[in-house]
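Page 47, continued from p. 46.
Same chain as before, 334 aa.
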Amino acid sequence: MKRILITGGCGFVGSALIRELLTHTDVRIINLDALTYAAQPAALAPFEGSERYHFVRGDLTDAVLLHTLLADTQPDAVIHLAAETHVDRSISGPAAFLRSNLQGTFTLLEAVRDWWSRQSEAAQARFRLLQVSTDEVYGDRGEHGAPACEDDPWRSSSPYAASKASADHLADAWHRTWGLPVIVSHSSNNYGPWQYPEKLIPVVIRQALAGQPIPLYGDGQQVRDWLHVDDHARALWCLVQHGEPGQHYNISAQCPLTNLDLVQRLCALMGRDASLIQPVADRPGHDRRYAITSDRIRALGWQPQVPLEQGLRDTVAFYRQYFLQGTRGEAQYV
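Result:
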């Protein structure tokens, strides 16, 4: 039975990954999470007390904790998801992103390198470290630019994207210099249950349920490629099992929509009039379009399974209950 150390496992993608692995595999999970503002411990409540799930509260920059945790748990893989991810927050306060995404990744890489270097050759060969990144490192593809492939140059726009690109460069360097078996993934925009309600889709659902104005940056023609979080979780596990160390893998369902189109679809699903949509001043440095290929990971056997329309319906249904029950103390909107 494999032992998997996941950083940031109480976050949106991390909790989806843990649910996927505990439900569909026999692996043991060690979840290291600092439980910052965006953590959603309730997303993992059904697994509390499971002998296959162990939670550790701690900060990724705590080197002593990391060294102890690695020595105690002897993981077969580390999946690194802990990160600050909200672009707006990175614009108003970039320092937290450099600390978490860059310093945190550096501390983890060093702790893993030290521990891994003292393992047997067989254990070293089996081990994988998956650095989970974003398509935003490739930057704006322009209105008609080709989707980014894994070997394209990076042109990060936001402090968030720049901090993730910096962490990815570190991961590549630790592989090239010391042979640490690192894999890097870049996914497109995720959606689904348990996303903290500061991101576009849960914000739209919250506002629409309340009959309140729905803010939309600029003209709403920014294009994003939408991937259900459960498909992302399955992709990450595919990479741990079949990915090649030293490689980068894009993860995309090839479901591009303008933000305006997405918001209108959500309004229609909730029976709300699109007149609720209210343009607001655009975000500084807002990228117009993201687009990535996903041929490399599809060659490993991964395919997205959740159709966009079904995924959006299920997400709306989830958030109806989420906001109704006040899961994180938000106002009772319904």
